[in-house]
Specification:
- With 565 residues, the chain is of the alpha+beta class.
- 48% of the residues lie in helices and 18% in strands.
- The two termini are 25 Å apart.
Length: 565
């Protein structure tokens, strides 16, 4: 192919050479196929809901049921020791046994309603973004292993909760297990799948949303022995509550205090802490607490109570009146779709010996135990549902935009072929969006994902590309009808004439979009507009002329054109 020095003779030569047109269209098709391969092969990764930057995050501390507040405090103190020397942290607030100040994410997760001695919440505040060298996402990524590996006592589960990527969900990755059969079988399946979660790269803060079973001791007051010991039942109850829980017995007044200061009385930590969970040890502790009866004699508490060992009452979590156990996890600098697909394949492969596995809606699965015939449904929730809703909504908007533009072009040009050429050229040029994400990822320290805002860029580019096509088609039509130029000459002159104004508007779009390119949420939109605009410009110059060439030849008769010009 002869090197074209000028745009007009280059386009004119291109339109007169079937071989060159085939080569140009072949390059276009190959580039589109490669762009699709880049996404499906995960060279360009997709994450529809990017996480925003923030100046704080929350640490959820969960100990097994039955742990005391002292053990919970030991874990929180360990976390504070690991974080206190971090320069980017300004302050931290610890909430023992209660939820942190209400936020929307905590309400969706149900965290604000969780209370008990075995839980705690720590709110960590960072310096302002301009005063630190790393983003909040990078900071949490760095601090997570530091805390989770350094504070492992008491079988604690520590989660680092950031601002949600979209509307808050229970977690980034949620697998809901439901069944109408035995709850024990559901638990066994859930903990088996939890092991698969833990082996999957990119997943952190893994947990099973299900109350664990444990043995507990119930104290039963023996009324007959209390009465025979010349004691009152109410007296025993109050002294026991005073010893192990404590109560306010009086108030101190202070002129500088807004309210009365309560005087709280209880036994010390050592006397009310059980180092072992044995029946004998508890009775030894109770023997140290004595009551003075009406006869002036001291009666030990161990003679007035009976201890029963029993399993805790198991809470049943349900959804739509169906018992449910959820396996949850967060993603650490990764999109949730890739670990999800990996775990799904592992479930199908590894559980096939015990269960009959059936693929159901979307990525969901149905399992049937081969021996007991128990049925289980595995439904993916969390950010996946939001992502699917995003794809559906934006896909619908993209389809509607293409259809509306097509019929507008049909009405305007009174030609289905030209209208189809405009829409086709507008659609194929968005392949540049994928390539610019690949290029941008090479120059960023973190993975640069295609996001939901990138899809918004797709929709915006349909209008931009259609405008470029209209400029060339309208001017070519004017040259044919008014100047009586032949089709090839008119198209080449139109491309050459309109190339400069199209380039200027493209540069304006690129420069304006570059301001968004570094934003963690809207960066996908900015980069998509940059890549799509560049691709649109190239398509307008070299592909649009080829696509409309045949339509123009059919529309205009040879008697109305002039080859001399």
């Amino acid at each position: 192919m002869r090197l074209c020095k000028y745009l007009e003779p280059c386009i004119y030569d291109l339109l007169h050479s079937p071989i060159k047109k085939i080569i140009a269209l072949s390059i276009l098709v190959v580039s589109l196929v490669i762009s699709v391969w880049l996404v499906t092969s995960t060279v360009v990764k997709v994450k529809l809901l990017p996480k925003p930057l923030a100046d704080n995050f929350t640490i959820y501390v969960d100990l097994p049921e039955g742990k005391s507040v002292y053990e919970t405090k030991e874990v929180t103190s360990c976390i504070l020791r690991h974080l206190k020397d971090e320069e980017i942290i300004t302050d931290m607030s610890v909430f023992l046994g209660e939820g942190a100040p209400v936020d929307f994410s905590a309400m969706i997760k149900g965290r604000v309603f969780d209370t008990g001695e075995n839980i705690a919440n720590i709110v960590v505040n960072f310096k302002r973004e301009d005063d630190r060298d790393e983003s909040s996402l990078q900071a949490v990524h760095r601090l997570r292993p530091l805390i989770q590996n350094g504070c492992t006592m008491h079988d604690v589960n520590i989660k680092m909760v950031e601002l949600p990527a979209g509307p808050p969900t229970l977690a980034s990755l949620v697998l809901e297990i439901t069944s109408d059969d035995k709850e024990e079988s559901m638990e066994a399946l859930a903990y088996t799948i939890e092991g698969m979660f833990k082996k999957t790269d990119g997943l952190v803060d893994i947990d099973v949303v299900n109350e664990s079973s444990y043995m507990q001791y119930r104290i039963v007051l023996e009324k007959n022995k209390i009465t025979a010991s010349h004691l009152q039942l109410d007296q025993v109850k109050k002294i026991m509550y005073l010893a192990f829980e404590g109560m306010d017995i009086a108030f101190a007044n202070d002129a500088e205090a807004e309210n009365q200061i309560p005087i709280h009385v209880t036994t010390n930590k050592e006397n009310k802490t059980f180092q072992t969970g044995s029946h004998e040890h508890i009775m030894i502790k109770f023997a140290e607490i004595t009551f003075m009866n009406s006869l002036g004699s001291l009666v030990p508490l161990s003679e007035l109570v009976m201890i029963k060992e029993e399993r805790n009452g198991h809470k049943i979590i349900s959804k739509n009146l169906t018992p449910i156990i959820s396996v949850v996890a967060e993603t650490d600098m990764e999109s949730q779709i890739y670990p999800l697909l990996s775990i799904r394949d592992e479930i199908i492969e590894n559980l096939a010996q015990k269960y009959d596995v059936e693929k159901t809606d979307m990525l969901d699965l149905a399992l049937t135990d081969k021996k007991t015939d128990e049925h289980f449904k595995l439904h993916w929730g969390g950010e996946l549902k939001l992502s699917m809703d995003t794809i559906f909504d934006l896909g619908t908007a993209l389809g509607a935009a293409i259809i509306i533009i097509f019929f507008m072009m049909v009405v305007y040009y009174k030609s289905f072929s030209i209208a189809g050429a405009v829409v086709l050229a507008s659609f194929i040029s968005v392949g540049g969006v994928i390539y610019i994400h690949l290029i941008w990822d090479l120059f960023t320290s973190e993975i640069f994902y295609m996001t939901g805002t990138s899809l918004i860029g797709f929709i915006a580019l349909i209008g931009i590309n259609s405008r470029n096509s209209l400029l060339i088609i309208d001017f070519a039509t004017q040259l044919i009808e008014e100047k009586h130029l032949n089709v090839e000459k008119a198209i080449s002159v139109s491309v050459y004439t309109r190339a400069k104004p199209i380039l200027l508007t493209a540069l304006a779009t690129i420069l304006a979009s570059s301001l968004l390119a570094t934003d963690p949420v809207f960066g996908g939109l900015g980069v998509a507009l940059i890549g799509g605009t560049i691709a649109s410009y190239l398509v307008s110059l070299f592909i649009i002329p080829i696509i409309i060439h045949g339509s123009f030849l059919k529309k205009y008769s040879k008697g109305k054109i002039n080859d001399s010009n």
